[in-house]
Amino acid sequence: MDAVQRQAAAGTYENPKVWGNDAQKGDIFVVRQSDADNNNIYAAGDFMIAQFDGSSRGRYYPGWGENNADWQHAWSGLSDFRIVFETGAASGSIYGNGLNQIGVRIYFTPIDVNGTVVPLSSAVLARTSITLLDYTTAQSLPSGWAYGTSVNQFHTLPEGQSTAARFAEFVQEVTTYYVTCATDARSRAITIGSKITLPGGGYALNADQHFNAPAGNFKNSVALRALTPIFYNSSNTRLDREDTANGKDWDQDNYYFTITEQGCYIIRSDISGAPSGPSNWSIISKDKHPNWHYIWQFGAESPSEKLSMISGSLRFCAS
What is the distance in angstroms between the CA of the first residue and the CA of the last residue of the chain? Predict the structure, then answer.
């Protein structure tokens, strides 16, 4: 195996040139970390395509979102652009309580004008605008629907849904977005698309076919339905009193609060109207009456029960 076989030719993605090198039109250059540090309009690892022959000195890279007469951002299109739920399916559901989350994953393959796959650095991805949108209108999600990159403790799938492996055939996956639906959302079912804005200012859409995105319209979406949230009251909960112990000047009664909705259990409680303290504690009231308070521990959970308890938090106080 000779040297040519062992190392890719200079001016390619495998062996890019750097600023200061001589160029032939079409050569691939890479923005180094030092270049980015000197001017924060650059993203380290961004690839540029030379539009000239000769020395690159004096020919400065364009900032993010721009091209110029000497340089073009290499990443200019997508060969694939897909949106899918973390379940691997194109449809799903969550409880419309503003808490329950479902993950939406976006996969795409970045290419240049020649159809060659462009490697993307973490700095390039950090500069890239990737959003979720209403598939039908190509506008923001309807009022009451929201998404972000942070996962909360209510990221739990309704029964019948489970997470799936990532798709290995795609070159790039962005951070998963987590979608929620508020209780007052007007639309209880939506179709979600997505948009990626490329470095040169163009963009690609996963949106309805009558939209014409400069970098391509891929018409891929997921459908999400908001289930009616479960509200807890006397019809689906139970409070049991136990005459636990007593003495000459005292009496202890324990109360056990249970959700009777099949498969549901408490995963968080917000205590109000009572003094703060550790999970198990007791006090004597200010009026000196022997009024003792006890906050109980949560019972055991099982995987099957956890799938159902996604309707939110419960407020209670025991005395």
Answer: 81
309 near 264, Cβ under 8 Å? yes
Nearest to 108 by CA among 55, 61, 170, 20: 170
Q: How many helices (H) and strands (E) does the chain have?
A: 4, 19
Task: Say if residues 137 and 204 touch (Cβ distance below 8 Å).
Answer: no
Structure tokens at 304: 């099957």
Closest to 74 (Cα-Cα) out of 143, 26, 140, 6: 26
Residues paired with residue 92 on neighbouring β-strands, in sequence order: 224
The Cα 90–Cα 101 span in angstroms is 16
Q: Could you report the per-residue pLDDT of 24-46, keeping only the tens digit for each?
A: 999 999 999 999 998 889 999 99
**Distance, CA of 195 to CA of 135 (rounded, Å):** 10
Task: Report the C-alpha gap between 141 and 123 in whole angstroms.
Answer: 27
pLDDT tens for residues 111-146?
999 999 999 999 999 999 999 999 999 999 999 999
Q: Cβ distance 87 to 165 under 8 Å?
A: no
Which residues have CB under 8 Å from 229's CB, separation 6+? 95, 96, 97, 183, 311, 312
Distances (CA, A) of 148 to 102, 179, 241, 266, 318: 11, 7, 43, 25, 36
Give the Cα separation of 11 and 13 in Å (integer). Answer: 7
Residues 6+ apart with CB under 8 A from 176: 86, 103, 104, 105, 149
Contacts of 277 (CB under 8 A, 6+ apart): 283, 295
Q: What is the pTM of this model?
A: 0.77
Please choose, from the candidates 171, 23, 48, the residue with its C-alpha nearest in 3D space to the C-alpha of residue 113.
48
